[in-house]
Amino acid sequence: MKKAGIVLKLFLVTSLVMLGILTLILLAQSLFFERFYRTVKVNDLVRHMQTFGQEYTEVRTDPVSSARVLGRFANENGAALAILNDNMERRSFDPYFITLQSEGRSVTLLLSSEGTAAADVPSGLQTGDPLTADGIYMDEKDTLMQPVTLQPETEKPEQGLTRVQGEITEMVLPENQAINPFYTQTRLDEALRDWRAEQTGTGDVSAGTAALRGEWTDKWSGVVYARVIVPLQKPDGQTIGYAFALSSLQPLGEATVMLRRYFLYLAPAAAGVLLLLSFVYSRLLSRPLVRLSRTSARMAALDFTPDEGRAIRSRDEFGELSRNLDALGHNLDAALRGLSEANTGLARQMEEKVRAEELRKELIANISHELKTPLGIVKGFAEGLQDDVAADKRERYLQLIVGETDRMNALILDMLQLSRFEAKAIKLKPEAVDIAGHVRSLLDSFAAQLEARNLSAGIQGEQKLLAIADPRRIDQVLLNLLSNAVRHAGEGGEILITLNRIGQGTAEIIVENDGPPIPENELERIWEQFYRAERSRDRKSGGTGLGLAIVRHILELHGSEYGAANTEKGVAFRFTLREAASDNGERKDNE
Protein backbone atom coordinates (compact mmCIF):
# COMPACT_ATOMS: atom_id res chain seq x y z
CA MET A 1 0.00 0.00 0.00
CA LYS A 2 1.39 3.38 -1.01
CA LYS A 3 2.10 5.63 1.95
CA ALA A 4 0.62 9.10 2.22
CA GLY A 5 3.44 11.66 1.93
CA ILE A 6 3.85 14.64 4.18
CA VAL A 7 3.13 16.98 1.27
CA LEU A 8 -0.20 15.29 0.68
CA LYS A 9 -1.10 15.36 4.36
CA LEU A 10 -0.28 19.04 4.74
CA PHE A 11 -2.08 19.82 1.50
CA LEU A 12 -5.24 17.96 2.55
CA VAL A 13 -5.36 19.51 6.01
CA THR A 14 -4.71 23.04 4.77
CA SER A 15 -7.15 22.65 1.88
CA LEU A 16 -9.91 21.35 4.15
CA VAL A 17 -9.45 24.24 6.58
CA MET A 18 -9.42 26.91 3.84
CA LEU A 19 -12.29 25.36 1.90
CA GLY A 20 -14.27 25.07 5.14
CA ILE A 21 -13.76 28.77 5.86
CA LEU A 22 -14.74 29.64 2.28
CA THR A 23 -17.85 27.48 2.53
CA LEU A 24 -18.89 29.13 5.79
CA ILE A 25 -18.42 32.60 4.27
CA LEU A 26 -20.42 31.74 1.16
CA LEU A 27 -23.13 30.02 3.21
CA ALA A 28 -23.42 32.97 5.59
CA GLN A 29 -23.70 35.40 2.70
CA SER A 30 -26.29 33.25 0.96
CA LEU A 31 -28.43 32.85 4.09
CA PHE A 32 -28.06 36.17 5.85
CA PHE A 33 -27.03 38.75 3.23
CA GLU A 34 -30.57 39.56 2.12
CA ARG A 35 -31.82 39.93 5.71
CA PHE A 36 -28.80 42.04 6.64
CA TYR A 37 -29.19 44.23 3.56
CA ARG A 38 -32.91 44.76 4.22
CA THR A 39 -32.37 45.59 7.91
CA VAL A 40 -29.55 48.02 7.22
CA LYS A 41 -31.48 49.76 4.43
CA VAL A 42 -34.60 50.21 6.56
CA ASN A 43 -32.58 51.39 9.58
CA ASP A 44 -30.69 53.90 7.44
CA LEU A 45 -33.95 55.16 5.99
CA VAL A 46 -35.44 55.57 9.49
CA ARG A 47 -32.38 57.46 10.68
CA HIS A 48 -32.40 59.75 7.66
CA MET A 49 -36.15 60.29 8.02
CA GLN A 50 -35.71 61.35 11.66
CA THR A 51 -32.95 63.78 10.67
CA PHE A 52 -35.13 65.05 7.84
CA GLY A 53 -38.07 65.54 10.25
CA GLN A 54 -35.99 67.77 12.49
CA GLU A 55 -34.68 69.85 9.58
CA TYR A 56 -38.07 70.14 7.90
CA THR A 57 -39.79 71.22 11.13
CA GLU A 58 -37.33 74.10 11.48
CA VAL A 59 -37.75 75.42 7.91
CA ARG A 60 -41.32 74.36 7.07
CA THR A 61 -42.51 77.99 6.90
CA ASP A 62 -39.84 78.94 4.34
CA PRO A 63 -40.90 77.62 0.89
CA VAL A 64 -37.36 77.65 -0.56
CA SER A 65 -35.66 76.07 2.44
CA SER A 66 -38.35 73.41 2.80
CA ALA A 67 -38.10 72.58 -0.92
CA ARG A 68 -34.33 72.30 -0.53
CA VAL A 69 -34.68 69.86 2.40
CA LEU A 70 -37.42 67.84 0.64
CA GLY A 71 -35.58 67.55 -2.70
CA ARG A 72 -32.22 66.63 -1.24
CA PHE A 73 -33.75 63.94 0.95
CA ALA A 74 -35.52 62.34 -2.02
CA ASN A 75 -32.38 62.46 -4.18
CA GLU A 76 -29.93 61.22 -1.54
CA ASN A 77 -32.12 58.38 -0.25
CA GLY A 78 -33.83 57.31 -3.48
CA ALA A 79 -37.16 57.57 -1.73
CA ALA A 80 -40.59 58.92 -2.60
CA LEU A 81 -41.82 61.31 0.10
CA ALA A 82 -45.19 62.62 1.30
CA ILE A 83 -45.98 65.12 4.11
CA LEU A 84 -49.10 64.30 6.16
CA ASN A 85 -51.12 66.43 8.57
CA ASP A 86 -52.44 65.36 11.96
CA ASN A 87 -55.29 63.46 10.30
CA MET A 88 -52.87 61.51 8.11
CA GLU A 89 -53.95 63.43 5.01
CA ARG A 90 -51.41 64.44 2.37
CA ARG A 91 -50.28 68.03 2.17
CA SER A 92 -49.32 69.71 -1.04
CA PHE A 93 -45.64 70.66 -1.17
CA ASP A 94 -43.00 71.72 -3.62
CA PRO A 95 -40.05 69.31 -3.40
CA TYR A 96 -37.80 70.90 -6.05
CA PHE A 97 -36.89 74.44 -7.12
CA ILE A 98 -34.73 76.56 -9.42
CA THR A 99 -33.40 79.95 -8.33
CA LEU A 100 -32.74 82.58 -11.05
CA GLN A 101 -30.83 85.84 -10.83
CA SER A 102 -32.94 88.21 -12.90
CA GLU A 103 -32.52 91.99 -13.20
CA GLY A 104 -30.77 92.37 -9.88
CA ARG A 105 -33.20 90.22 -7.90
CA SER A 106 -33.50 86.53 -7.04
CA VAL A 107 -36.57 84.64 -8.23
CA THR A 108 -37.26 81.08 -7.09
CA LEU A 109 -39.28 78.73 -9.31
CA LEU A 110 -41.10 76.21 -7.10
CA LEU A 111 -41.74 72.93 -8.98
CA SER A 112 -44.90 71.38 -7.57
CA SER A 113 -45.08 67.63 -7.13
CA GLU A 114 -48.67 67.68 -8.40
CA GLY A 115 -48.58 70.19 -11.21
CA THR A 116 -45.17 69.56 -12.75
CA ALA A 117 -44.01 66.49 -14.69
CA ALA A 118 -40.45 65.40 -15.30
CA ALA A 119 -40.82 66.08 -19.02
CA ASP A 120 -41.64 69.73 -18.26
CA VAL A 121 -38.12 70.37 -16.93
CA PRO A 122 -35.44 70.79 -19.65
CA SER A 123 -32.74 68.15 -19.38
CA GLY A 124 -29.11 68.94 -18.74
CA LEU A 125 -29.66 72.11 -16.71
CA GLN A 126 -26.62 73.30 -14.76
CA THR A 127 -25.81 76.19 -12.47
CA GLY A 128 -24.94 79.26 -14.58
CA ASP A 129 -27.20 78.29 -17.51
CA PRO A 130 -29.77 80.86 -18.76
CA LEU A 131 -33.42 79.94 -18.25
CA THR A 132 -36.76 81.48 -19.20
CA ALA A 133 -40.00 80.70 -17.35
CA ASP A 134 -43.63 81.73 -17.68
CA GLY A 135 -45.71 81.46 -14.52
CA ILE A 136 -47.57 83.08 -11.67
CA TYR A 137 -45.96 84.93 -8.77
CA MET A 138 -46.94 83.58 -5.38
CA ASP A 139 -45.87 86.49 -3.09
CA GLU A 140 -46.13 90.22 -3.03
CA LYS A 141 -42.41 90.77 -3.54
CA ASP A 142 -42.43 88.72 -6.77
CA THR A 143 -39.64 86.41 -5.53
CA LEU A 144 -41.59 83.13 -5.63
CA MET A 145 -43.10 81.83 -8.86
CA GLN A 146 -45.17 78.80 -9.71
CA PRO A 147 -43.87 78.06 -13.26
CA VAL A 148 -46.26 76.89 -15.94
CA THR A 149 -43.78 76.64 -18.81
CA LEU A 150 -39.99 76.43 -18.78
CA GLN A 151 -38.13 77.61 -21.90
CA PRO A 152 -41.33 78.66 -23.69
CA GLU A 153 -41.29 78.73 -27.48
CA THR A 154 -43.66 81.74 -27.86
CA GLU A 155 -42.34 85.27 -28.10
CA LYS A 156 -44.73 86.54 -25.41
CA PRO A 157 -46.17 84.79 -22.36
CA GLU A 158 -49.76 83.61 -22.43
CA GLN A 159 -52.44 85.84 -21.00
CA GLY A 160 -52.33 85.87 -17.20
CA LEU A 161 -48.73 84.62 -17.01
CA THR A 162 -45.57 86.54 -16.25
CA ARG A 163 -42.22 85.84 -17.92
CA VAL A 164 -38.95 85.90 -16.03
CA GLN A 165 -35.48 85.42 -17.55
CA GLY A 166 -32.25 84.96 -15.70
CA GLU A 167 -29.22 82.82 -14.86
CA ILE A 168 -29.52 79.76 -12.65
CA THR A 169 -27.78 80.31 -9.30
CA GLU A 170 -29.14 77.29 -7.39
CA MET A 171 -31.36 74.35 -8.12
CA VAL A 172 -32.54 71.04 -6.67
CA LEU A 173 -34.00 68.74 -9.31
CA PRO A 174 -34.91 65.05 -9.24
CA GLU A 175 -31.94 62.79 -9.85
CA ASN A 176 -33.72 59.44 -9.86
CA GLN A 177 -36.86 59.59 -11.98
CA ALA A 178 -37.88 56.12 -10.85
CA ILE A 179 -38.66 57.40 -7.35
CA ASN A 180 -39.06 61.18 -7.49
CA PRO A 181 -42.52 62.64 -6.71
CA PHE A 182 -43.19 63.48 -10.35
CA TYR A 183 -43.68 59.75 -10.99
CA THR A 184 -44.75 58.34 -7.65
CA GLN A 185 -47.86 60.28 -6.60
CA THR A 186 -50.19 57.40 -7.43
CA ARG A 187 -47.88 54.91 -5.77
CA LEU A 188 -47.71 57.02 -2.61
CA ASP A 189 -51.50 57.33 -2.53
CA GLU A 190 -51.92 53.55 -2.83
CA ALA A 191 -49.35 52.84 -0.13
CA LEU A 192 -50.92 55.40 2.21
CA ARG A 193 -54.40 54.00 1.51
CA ASP A 194 -53.22 50.45 2.30
CA TRP A 195 -51.61 51.69 5.54
CA ARG A 196 -54.80 53.40 6.57
CA ALA A 197 -56.74 50.21 5.87
CA GLU A 198 -54.36 48.31 8.13
CA GLN A 199 -54.86 50.90 10.89
CA THR A 200 -58.65 50.95 10.56
CA GLY A 201 -58.98 47.75 12.53
CA THR A 202 -57.24 49.32 15.50
CA GLY A 203 -59.59 52.31 15.55
CA ASP A 204 -56.67 54.77 15.38
CA VAL A 205 -55.37 56.14 12.10
CA SER A 206 -52.64 58.30 13.68
CA ALA A 207 -49.04 57.20 13.47
CA GLY A 208 -48.17 58.01 17.07
CA THR A 209 -44.95 59.61 18.18
CA ALA A 210 -42.51 56.81 17.27
CA ALA A 211 -41.15 55.89 13.84
CA LEU A 212 -43.14 53.14 12.12
CA ARG A 213 -41.46 50.82 9.66
CA GLY A 214 -42.80 48.09 7.45
CA GLU A 215 -43.04 46.80 3.90
CA TRP A 216 -45.51 47.42 1.13
CA THR A 217 -45.94 45.55 -2.16
CA ASP A 218 -47.03 47.35 -5.29
CA LYS A 219 -49.91 45.26 -6.64
CA TRP A 220 -49.32 46.45 -10.21
CA SER A 221 -45.56 45.80 -10.49
CA GLY A 222 -45.01 43.38 -7.61
CA VAL A 223 -42.08 45.49 -6.35
CA VAL A 224 -41.57 45.48 -2.58
CA TYR A 225 -40.96 48.84 -0.85
CA ALA A 226 -39.71 49.80 2.58
CA ARG A 227 -42.37 51.98 4.25
CA VAL A 228 -41.34 54.41 7.00
CA ILE A 229 -43.48 56.95 8.87
CA VAL A 230 -41.91 59.43 11.32
CA PRO A 231 -43.64 62.22 13.29
CA LEU A 232 -42.80 65.86 12.65
CA GLN A 233 -42.43 67.45 16.09
CA LYS A 234 -41.69 70.92 17.35
CA PRO A 235 -38.89 71.43 19.87
CA ASP A 236 -41.51 71.28 22.66
CA GLY A 237 -42.61 67.81 21.53
CA GLN A 238 -45.84 68.83 19.80
CA THR A 239 -46.62 66.70 16.71
CA ILE A 240 -47.54 68.85 13.74
CA GLY A 241 -47.67 66.14 11.08
CA TYR A 242 -45.92 63.12 9.67
CA ALA A 243 -43.41 62.30 6.94
CA PHE A 244 -44.27 59.22 4.87
CA ALA A 245 -41.52 57.65 2.70
CA LEU A 246 -41.31 54.72 0.27
CA SER A 247 -37.97 53.23 -0.80
CA SER A 248 -37.80 50.39 -3.31
CA LEU A 249 -36.28 47.11 -2.14
CA GLN A 250 -36.09 45.80 -5.71
CA PRO A 251 -32.32 46.46 -5.93
CA LEU A 252 -32.02 44.18 -2.91
CA GLY A 253 -33.64 41.28 -4.74
CA GLU A 254 -31.61 41.95 -7.87
CA ALA A 255 -28.42 42.25 -5.86
CA THR A 256 -29.18 38.98 -4.06
CA VAL A 257 -29.81 37.14 -7.33
CA MET A 258 -26.70 38.60 -8.94
CA LEU A 259 -24.67 37.81 -5.82
CA ARG A 260 -25.75 34.19 -5.94
CA ARG A 261 -24.90 33.99 -9.62
CA TYR A 262 -21.60 35.67 -8.84
CA PHE A 263 -20.90 33.02 -6.23
CA LEU A 264 -21.34 30.34 -8.90
CA TYR A 265 -18.31 31.82 -10.66
CA LEU A 266 -16.48 33.03 -7.57
CA ALA A 267 -16.63 29.80 -5.58
CA PRO A 268 -14.74 27.58 -8.10
CA ALA A 269 -12.15 30.30 -8.71
CA ALA A 270 -11.70 30.93 -4.99
CA ALA A 271 -11.52 27.20 -4.32
CA GLY A 272 -8.90 26.85 -7.04
CA VAL A 273 -6.83 29.69 -5.59
CA LEU A 274 -7.13 28.25 -2.09
CA LEU A 275 -6.09 24.81 -3.32
CA LEU A 276 -3.12 26.36 -5.11
CA LEU A 277 -2.11 28.32 -2.01
CA SER A 278 -2.52 25.20 0.11
CA PHE A 279 -0.31 23.27 -2.26
CA VAL A 280 2.36 25.98 -2.26
CA TYR A 281 2.20 26.26 1.54
CA SER A 282 2.52 22.49 2.01
CA ARG A 283 5.39 22.33 -0.47
CA LEU A 284 7.27 25.11 1.29
CA LEU A 285 6.92 23.44 4.69
CA SER A 286 7.76 19.95 3.52
CA ARG A 287 10.43 20.77 0.91
CA PRO A 288 13.46 19.88 3.12
CA LEU A 289 11.98 16.54 4.18
CA VAL A 290 10.90 15.70 0.64
CA ARG A 291 14.33 16.54 -0.71
CA LEU A 292 16.06 14.35 1.89
CA SER A 293 13.58 11.56 1.20
CA ARG A 294 14.29 11.71 -2.53
CA THR A 295 18.04 11.79 -1.95
CA SER A 296 17.89 8.69 0.24
CA ALA A 297 15.61 6.97 -2.30
CA ARG A 298 18.10 7.72 -5.09
CA MET A 299 20.96 6.39 -3.03
CA ALA A 300 18.98 3.25 -2.19
CA ALA A 301 18.57 2.77 -5.95
CA LEU A 302 22.37 3.19 -6.38
CA ASP A 303 21.98 6.63 -7.93
CA PHE A 304 24.66 8.78 -6.33
CA THR A 305 24.71 11.75 -8.70
CA PRO A 306 24.64 15.06 -6.79
CA ASP A 307 21.46 17.16 -6.87
CA GLU A 308 22.92 20.66 -6.63
CA GLY A 309 19.77 22.34 -7.93
CA ARG A 310 17.74 21.17 -4.90
CA ALA A 311 20.39 21.22 -2.20
CA ILE A 312 19.29 22.49 1.20
CA ARG A 313 21.33 25.61 1.98
CA SER A 314 20.01 26.20 5.49
CA ARG A 315 22.34 26.04 8.50
CA ASP A 316 20.06 23.83 10.56
CA GLU A 317 20.05 20.05 10.95
CA PHE A 318 18.34 19.60 7.58
CA GLY A 319 21.13 21.46 5.80
CA GLU A 320 23.87 19.49 7.56
CA LEU A 321 22.20 16.17 6.80
CA SER A 322 21.78 17.20 3.17
CA ARG A 323 25.46 18.08 2.79
CA ASN A 324 26.53 14.76 4.37
CA LEU A 325 24.30 12.80 2.03
CA ASP A 326 25.66 14.69 -0.97
CA ALA A 327 29.24 13.93 0.07
CA LEU A 328 28.41 10.26 0.55
CA GLY A 329 26.69 10.09 -2.81
CA HIS A 330 29.65 11.77 -4.57
CA ASN A 331 32.12 9.24 -3.15
CA LEU A 332 29.97 6.24 -3.99
CA ASP A 333 29.22 7.58 -7.47
CA ALA A 334 32.92 7.90 -8.30
CA ALA A 335 33.53 4.31 -7.16
CA LEU A 336 30.62 2.80 -9.11
CA ARG A 337 30.75 4.88 -12.27
CA GLY A 338 33.24 2.63 -14.02
CA LEU A 339 31.21 -0.46 -13.19
CA SER A 340 28.02 1.22 -14.45
CA GLU A 341 29.63 2.12 -17.77
CA ALA A 342 30.89 -1.44 -18.22
CA ASN A 343 27.46 -2.86 -17.44
CA THR A 344 25.85 -0.47 -19.90
CA GLY A 345 28.19 -1.54 -22.70
CA LEU A 346 27.64 -5.19 -21.93
CA ALA A 347 23.87 -4.77 -21.86
CA ARG A 348 23.96 -3.00 -25.24
CA GLN A 349 25.97 -5.80 -26.78
CA MET A 350 23.58 -8.39 -25.39
CA GLU A 351 20.59 -6.51 -26.78
CA GLU A 352 22.19 -6.33 -30.22
CA LYS A 353 22.95 -10.04 -30.16
CA VAL A 354 19.44 -10.91 -29.07
CA ARG A 355 17.93 -8.74 -31.78
CA ALA A 356 20.26 -10.15 -34.42
CA GLU A 357 19.31 -13.67 -33.38
CA GLU A 358 15.60 -12.83 -33.52
CA LEU A 359 16.00 -11.31 -36.98
CA ARG A 360 17.97 -14.33 -38.16
CA LYS A 361 15.30 -16.74 -36.92
CA GLU A 362 12.50 -14.66 -38.44
CA LEU A 363 14.33 -14.44 -41.77
CA ILE A 364 14.99 -18.19 -41.88
CA ALA A 365 11.39 -18.95 -41.01
CA ASN A 366 10.05 -16.57 -43.65
CA ILE A 367 12.45 -17.82 -46.35
CA SER A 368 11.63 -21.43 -45.52
CA HIS A 369 7.93 -20.67 -45.73
CA GLU A 370 8.18 -18.77 -49.02
CA LEU A 371 10.53 -21.26 -50.75
CA LYS A 372 8.97 -24.47 -49.50
CA THR A 373 5.96 -24.42 -51.85
CA PRO A 374 7.76 -23.50 -55.11
CA LEU A 375 10.53 -26.03 -54.42
CA GLY A 376 7.93 -28.70 -53.82
CA ILE A 377 6.22 -27.83 -57.09
CA VAL A 378 9.52 -27.85 -59.00
CA LYS A 379 10.46 -31.21 -57.49
CA GLY A 380 7.08 -32.74 -58.38
CA PHE A 381 7.23 -31.68 -62.00
CA ALA A 382 10.91 -32.67 -62.29
CA GLU A 383 10.08 -36.15 -61.01
CA GLY A 384 7.27 -36.33 -63.58
CA LEU A 385 9.76 -35.53 -66.32
CA GLN A 386 12.19 -38.05 -64.86
CA ASP A 387 9.48 -40.70 -64.99
CA ASP A 388 9.06 -39.95 -68.70
CA VAL A 389 5.51 -38.52 -68.59
CA ALA A 390 3.52 -38.22 -71.74
CA ALA A 391 5.05 -35.99 -74.37
CA ASP A 392 2.03 -33.64 -74.42
CA LYS A 393 2.60 -32.79 -70.71
CA ARG A 394 6.34 -32.13 -70.82
CA GLU A 395 6.00 -28.63 -72.27
CA ARG A 396 3.48 -27.64 -69.58
CA TYR A 397 5.70 -29.11 -66.81
CA LEU A 398 8.69 -27.19 -68.09
CA GLN A 399 6.68 -23.93 -68.17
CA LEU A 400 5.54 -24.46 -64.58
CA ILE A 401 9.09 -25.21 -63.44
CA VAL A 402 10.34 -22.02 -65.14
CA GLY A 403 7.46 -20.04 -63.58
CA GLU A 404 8.22 -21.26 -60.07
CA THR A 405 11.92 -20.59 -60.63
CA ASP A 406 11.11 -17.02 -61.68
CA ARG A 407 8.96 -16.64 -58.56
CA MET A 408 11.84 -17.80 -56.32
CA ASN A 409 14.24 -15.51 -58.16
CA ALA A 410 11.90 -12.51 -57.66
CA LEU A 411 11.64 -13.39 -53.98
CA ILE A 412 15.41 -13.52 -53.58
CA LEU A 413 15.85 -10.21 -55.46
CA ASP A 414 13.22 -8.54 -53.25
CA MET A 415 14.93 -9.91 -50.15
CA LEU A 416 18.29 -8.56 -51.28
CA GLN A 417 16.76 -5.16 -52.03
CA LEU A 418 14.93 -5.08 -48.69
CA SER A 419 18.13 -5.93 -46.84
CA ARG A 420 19.85 -2.99 -48.56
CA PHE A 421 17.10 -0.67 -47.42
CA GLU A 422 17.29 -1.95 -43.84
CA ALA A 423 21.06 -1.53 -43.88
CA LYS A 424 20.64 2.11 -45.05
CA ALA A 425 22.81 1.31 -48.06
CA ILE A 426 20.55 2.99 -50.65
CA LYS A 427 20.86 6.72 -51.34
CA LEU A 428 18.20 8.65 -53.22
CA LYS A 429 18.87 10.82 -56.27
CA PRO A 430 15.95 13.27 -56.12
CA GLU A 431 14.90 15.46 -59.03
CA ALA A 432 11.75 17.02 -60.44
CA VAL A 433 9.44 14.19 -61.54
CA ASP A 434 6.09 14.44 -63.33
CA ILE A 435 4.11 11.93 -61.26
CA ALA A 436 1.14 12.06 -63.64
CA GLY A 437 3.32 11.07 -66.60
CA HIS A 438 4.92 8.20 -64.69
CA VAL A 439 1.48 6.89 -63.65
CA ARG A 440 0.24 6.92 -67.25
CA SER A 441 3.34 5.06 -68.47
CA LEU A 442 3.01 2.40 -65.78
CA LEU A 443 -0.69 1.92 -66.51
CA ASP A 444 0.19 1.16 -70.12
CA SER A 445 2.41 -1.70 -68.93
CA PHE A 446 -0.56 -3.20 -67.08
CA ALA A 447 -2.84 -3.12 -70.11
CA ALA A 448 -2.72 -6.88 -70.70
CA GLN A 449 -3.43 -7.72 -67.03
CA LEU A 450 -6.26 -5.22 -66.86
CA GLU A 451 -7.84 -6.63 -69.99
CA ALA A 452 -7.44 -10.23 -68.79
CA ARG A 453 -9.38 -9.47 -65.60
CA ASN A 454 -11.84 -7.06 -67.22
CA LEU A 455 -10.56 -4.17 -65.05
CA SER A 456 -10.72 -0.46 -65.82
CA ALA A 457 -8.14 2.10 -64.68
CA GLY A 458 -8.32 5.87 -64.63
CA ILE A 459 -6.56 9.00 -63.38
CA GLN A 460 -8.29 11.99 -61.81
CA GLY A 461 -7.09 15.26 -60.34
CA GLU A 462 -4.02 17.09 -61.59
CA GLN A 463 -2.98 16.39 -65.19
CA LYS A 464 0.59 17.39 -64.40
CA LEU A 465 2.06 17.12 -60.91
CA LEU A 466 5.76 17.89 -60.40
CA ALA A 467 7.30 16.47 -57.23
CA ILE A 468 10.80 16.01 -55.79
CA ALA A 469 11.59 12.27 -55.88
CA ASP A 470 14.04 9.63 -57.07
CA PRO A 471 12.46 8.60 -60.43
CA ARG A 472 13.55 4.96 -60.27
CA ARG A 473 12.48 4.47 -56.66
CA ILE A 474 9.17 6.29 -57.00
CA ASP A 475 8.41 4.15 -60.08
CA GLN A 476 9.08 1.13 -57.86
CA VAL A 477 6.56 2.46 -55.34
CA LEU A 478 3.91 3.10 -58.00
CA LEU A 479 4.59 -0.26 -59.65
CA ASN A 480 4.17 -2.15 -56.36
CA LEU A 481 0.97 -0.28 -55.46
CA LEU A 482 -0.55 -0.72 -58.94
CA SER A 483 0.45 -4.38 -59.03
CA ASN A 484 -1.10 -4.86 -55.57
CA ALA A 485 -4.29 -3.09 -56.74
CA VAL A 486 -4.57 -5.27 -59.87
CA ARG A 487 -4.05 -8.49 -57.90
CA HIS A 488 -6.69 -7.71 -55.28
CA ALA A 489 -9.30 -5.87 -57.39
CA GLY A 490 -12.59 -7.65 -57.90
CA GLU A 491 -13.41 -9.08 -61.31
CA GLY A 492 -14.69 -6.27 -63.55
CA GLY A 493 -13.77 -3.65 -60.94
CA GLU A 494 -12.06 -0.27 -61.25
CA ILE A 495 -8.63 1.05 -60.26
CA LEU A 496 -8.54 4.82 -59.64
CA ILE A 497 -5.38 6.93 -59.23
CA THR A 498 -5.98 10.39 -57.71
CA LEU A 499 -3.36 13.18 -57.93
CA ASN A 500 -3.96 16.21 -55.68
CA ARG A 501 -2.21 19.22 -54.23
CA ILE A 502 -2.73 19.54 -50.47
CA GLY A 503 -1.36 22.06 -48.03
CA GLN A 504 1.66 24.23 -48.82
CA GLY A 505 3.81 22.59 -51.50
CA THR A 506 2.62 19.03 -50.87
CA ALA A 507 1.42 16.51 -53.45
CA GLU A 508 -0.80 13.54 -52.59
CA ILE A 509 -1.11 10.31 -54.61
CA ILE A 510 -3.95 7.84 -53.90
CA VAL A 511 -4.24 4.37 -55.50
CA GLU A 512 -7.69 2.86 -54.90
CA ASN A 513 -9.10 -0.45 -56.12
CA ASP A 514 -12.51 -2.09 -55.91
CA GLY A 515 -12.61 -5.27 -53.87
CA PRO A 516 -12.97 -6.74 -50.39
CA PRO A 517 -11.62 -4.55 -47.53
CA ILE A 518 -8.64 -5.30 -45.30
CA PRO A 519 -9.54 -6.11 -41.67
CA GLU A 520 -9.07 -2.97 -39.56
CA ASN A 521 -6.68 -4.72 -37.17
CA GLU A 522 -4.38 -5.61 -40.09
CA LEU A 523 -4.13 -2.16 -41.76
CA GLU A 524 -0.98 -1.28 -39.82
CA ARG A 525 0.67 -4.69 -40.30
CA ILE A 526 0.44 -4.81 -44.09
CA TRP A 527 3.69 -2.79 -44.28
CA GLU A 528 5.65 -5.55 -42.51
CA GLN A 529 7.82 -7.92 -44.53
CA PHE A 530 6.27 -11.28 -45.47
CA TYR A 531 2.95 -10.19 -44.00
CA ARG A 532 -0.10 -10.90 -46.11
CA ALA A 533 -3.76 -10.61 -45.22
CA GLU A 534 -5.68 -13.88 -45.20
CA ARG A 535 -7.60 -12.91 -48.30
CA SER A 536 -4.40 -12.77 -50.36
CA ARG A 537 -2.79 -15.98 -49.22
CA ASP A 538 -3.75 -17.66 -52.51
CA ARG A 539 -0.55 -18.04 -54.54
CA LYS A 540 -2.51 -17.49 -57.74
CA SER A 541 -2.74 -13.81 -56.85
CA GLY A 542 1.07 -13.55 -56.97
CA GLY A 543 3.29 -11.35 -54.80
CA THR A 544 6.26 -12.12 -52.57
CA GLY A 545 4.97 -10.44 -49.40
CA LEU A 546 7.84 -7.92 -49.54
CA GLY A 547 6.42 -5.30 -51.90
CA LEU A 548 4.75 -3.09 -49.30
CA ALA A 549 7.74 -3.38 -46.96
CA ILE A 550 9.95 -2.06 -49.79
CA VAL A 551 7.41 0.71 -50.49
CA ARG A 552 7.51 1.72 -46.82
CA HIS A 553 11.33 2.05 -46.84
CA ILE A 554 11.34 4.09 -50.07
CA LEU A 555 8.63 6.48 -48.80
CA GLU A 556 10.40 6.95 -45.48
CA LEU A 557 13.58 7.87 -47.36
CA HIS A 558 11.53 10.50 -49.21
CA GLY A 559 10.12 11.85 -45.92
CA SER A 560 6.60 11.01 -47.08
CA GLU A 561 3.43 10.43 -45.13
CA TYR A 562 1.75 7.17 -46.13
CA GLY A 563 -1.08 4.89 -45.10
CA ALA A 564 -3.89 2.59 -46.16
CA ALA A 565 -7.62 2.78 -45.45
CA ASN A 566 -10.77 0.94 -46.40
CA THR A 567 -13.23 2.84 -48.61
CA GLU A 568 -16.83 2.24 -49.63
CA LYS A 569 -15.68 0.30 -52.73
CA GLY A 570 -12.43 -1.31 -51.59
CA VAL A 571 -9.00 -0.23 -50.33
CA ALA A 572 -7.02 3.01 -50.92
CA PHE A 573 -3.25 3.46 -50.48
CA ARG A 574 -1.97 7.04 -50.20
CA PHE A 575 1.39 8.79 -49.86
CA THR A 576 2.70 12.34 -50.14
CA LEU A 577 5.66 14.01 -51.85
CA ARG A 578 7.04 17.53 -51.84
CA GLU A 579 6.08 19.62 -54.83
CA ALA A 580 8.98 20.68 -57.05
CA ALA A 581 7.75 24.26 -57.41
CA SER A 582 8.02 24.94 -53.65
CA ASP A 583 11.36 23.24 -53.12
CA ASN A 584 13.65 24.42 -55.94
CA GLY A 585 16.49 25.40 -53.66
CA GLU A 586 16.54 22.08 -51.88
CA ARG A 587 16.31 20.18 -55.20
CA LYS A 588 19.40 21.99 -56.52
CA ASP A 589 21.29 21.17 -53.35
CA ASN A 590 20.39 17.49 -53.66
CA GLU A 591 21.42 17.41 -57.31
Can you describe this structure in just a few lines?
The protein is of the alpha+beta class. It has 11 helices and 16 strands.
Q: How much helix is in the residues?
A: 40-55%
Biggest sheet descriptor: 7 strands, mixed
Number of strands: 16
Query: The CATH topology of the domain at 427-590 is what?
Result: Heat Shock Protein 90
N-to-C order of helices and strands: HHEEEEEEHEEEHHHEHHEEHEEHEEH
The portion of residues forming beta strands comes to 15-25%
User: Poorly predicted ranges (pLDDT <50, ≥5 residues)?
Assistant: 177-183, 534-540, 582-591
**Through-space gap between termini:** 64 Å
Radius of gyration: 50 Å
Class derived from helix and strand content: alpha+beta
CATH class of the domain at 427-590: Alpha Beta
- Please, what is the CATH homologous superfamily of the domain at 427-590? Histidine kinase-like ATPase, C-terminal domain
Number of helices: 11
Describe the overall structure.
Helices cover 50% and strands 20% of the residues. It has eleven helices and 16 strands. Strands 10, 11, 12, 13, 14, 15 and 16 form a seven-stranded mixed β-sheet that branches. The longest helix is centred in the middle third of the chain and has 70 residues, at 317-386.
Which features would summarize this protein structure in a list?
16 strands, alpha+beta, Heat Shock Protein 90, 591 residues
